[in-house]
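Recap from last week: sequence in, structure out.
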Amino acid sequence: MLITRKSPFQAELSWLQDEMNRVFGLETHKHQASFEPNVTIWEKDDKFTLEMELPGFAQEDVNIEILPTGVLSIQGECSVVPRENADLVSGYQRSGQIHKEYKVPNSVAAESIDAKLLNGMLTITLGKKAKAKARKIDVA
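Predicted structure tokens:
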């Protein structure tokens, strides 16, 4: 099983901090906005599949690493591109940074990890190591 580390109150506390800064006339950290993408993790006999919704992200916006500590790190940043000679009337576009970490089980073969980003869906496939089979040893 893959485990993620995050605080359930991170988004609420960030919002509260921004509101307090606004009330007291201090600089807010809106330029460092982050969001929690929807993540689904599947397990089969031979692999894990992690699916993460990243609408508006391009391949060059995402950085994926497997750290020596056995942690899968996913980082990315997506920003809104302003339209030239146009005023925003209404709308919502997701932008900001993501940083997710998952502890990878020992059964995952690090060299068999594959990732692709297609139509806003990041799919990471983590192949499992071949299971050790019992071997009969003849006594000489």
